[in-house]
Amino acid sequence: MAVPKRKTSPSKRGMRRAHKGLKGTTVIENSTTGELHRPHHVSKDGYYRNRQVTTETVNA
Known about the structure:
Elements: H1 10-17, E1 28-29, E2 36-37, E3 47-48, E4 51-52
Antiparallel strand pairs: 1-2, 3-4
């Protein structure tokens, strides 16, 4: 079984874990209402890429 020869320093451990941090949610502004929503998702007023794709509004 492999055993580490030396203790891993806190700096090396941190560099190894650097990519594991959580990232913030990406949001874009709706061009019709100005609300923020996730990209590639239908907004609350039913618009997607400046076209209305649904008739009812989402209550959220």
